[in-house]
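**Backbone description:**
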Amino acid sequence: MTNLTHEPVSHTTLSETYSVCPVCLGRIRAEYIKKGSAVYLSKECARHGRFSCVVSQDASDFESWKTDTYNIKPKMALRRTEKGCPHDCGPCDEHMQTACCVLIDVTYRCDQLCAVCFASSSPENDGELSLNDICKKLDFLAGMSDARKFNIQLSGGEPTVRDDLPEIVKMAKAKGFEYVQLNTNGKRIGTDENYANVLKQAGADAVFMQFDAVSDSVYETLRKEKLLDIKRRAVDNCRKARLPVALVPTIVKGINDNEIGGIIEFMLENIDVIKGIHFQPVSFFGRYPSAFGNNQRFTMFDTINEIEKQSGGTISKKDLFPISTGHNLCCFYASYIREEDGSISCIRRVEKAPGCCDDEPPCCEEASNGCESEPCCPPDIEIISRDRDFVLNKWKMAEEVSGDGFDVFLNNIRKNSFTLTGMAFQDAMTLDTERLRRCRVQVLAKNNTLVPFCAYNLTDLNGNYLNREHA
C-alpha cells in the first residue's frame, strides 16, 4: 500500500488527540505538529503505517484560531463508552456538546450523480423513511431536546425527490420544531416555478442550496451536468415565494477555489433573498474521484484566506472567527451589512456564549453550576435555546414595510445583511475525536441514535462507511 504521509521529518508537537486509521478506521493516537510554516495532523497505525495531512498552510493562522468554547452536554447519553470515539456514537456518555441542528435523511435517492457526494447518493439508490417513521423520529427528538426543540435539517439523498416533502415540513412544524431547513441541490425548485411557494406555505424556514460556482464548467466537473441556469431560476423562485436561501459551495482545490469571489458577488446581487454563504471545503468521504485526494485538500484556513483575497480585502480574514460552542476548528462565522454606497461592514465578528459577559468560560461554568453570587451568565438551558435561536434568526428575508419609521430602518438592515460561514467536515485523514465529542451538528440514524455528522459519513479509503446504514 502507498503511504499517504506528507509529514516532514523534523517537527514540533503542538497538541495530542485521537483519530482513526484511514485504512481500517481503528482508533489511534494522533498529534498536531508544526514544521516550518505549516501544521499537520499526524498519526500512525500499527498495521497500516503512518499518515499525515495538512491542517493549515500557515501555523500562525492555526495558533490564532485557538479560543475557548463553551460546551453543554446532551440531555442524556444513549450509549456507554466502550470502544471510544468515534465507535460509540449515540450520543455516548463522553459526548460533550448537545446538538444545535439535527439532520434527518428523508430519502437515499437523488436526481444527480455527483462526482463528490458524502452520502454516495444516486438515482439508483432506493429506500426511504415512511411518514410514520419520520413522525416517530420527530417525537424522539422532541423528547431528547434539552431546551427549545432542535433545529431540523431535512436532507438525504435529495429530499425534493419525495412528493410528500411538504407534508414532512408541516409535520415537523406541527410538533413544535421552530426551524426547519431544506438541504437541496435546487433542481426541483428551479424547474417547478411554484414548488418554492409550496415549501414556504408548508412552513420551511430556509433553503440550503448547493452552489459551487458561477460557471458551468465547474458543475460539469463536480456535478456531471450544467446547472448554473437552474440555480439562478431556483433563486428567483425562492424570491417570489419569500423563502430565504443560503448558498452552499463545496470547495475543491484546483477545481473551484477560484470561484469564491464570484459566489460572493452573486450573493450580493441577490442579497434580498440570498442571506448567506456556507462554505464547505471538500472532505474526502463517501464518493469522490481518486484524483481528488490529499493533494487537493482545501482547508478551512485556505477558505478564509481566499475570501479575503478574492473580495479584494473588502472582507477581512480578521472578521471571521470560530463560534462560541462546539469546537474552534470546526467552523467560522461573521455577519455583514451592505451599506447604501455598496461598501460592506462587518457587524458581528464573533459570538460569545450567548448572553455571556466578557469573562472567560470558567466564569460561565461556575454560574451555570449555581454559584452563590449573582451569576454573570444565563444557565445552560437558556444558552442552549439562544444557540438554536441564533440559527433560527440568521437567515431571514426582510418584510414588506412602508413608511419612514424605525421599523423601516430595521427592515432595511435585514434586507441588506448577510452572513459568511464555513464548516470543515472531517474525513478519515483529518478526524480529531476531540472535535467529534464537541459536535453540534448531528444526524438522527435509523436506530434513533444521534451521531456527529462527520462520524456518520466517515468512510475508509475504500469508501466503506463506519455508521451510515445504506450505500
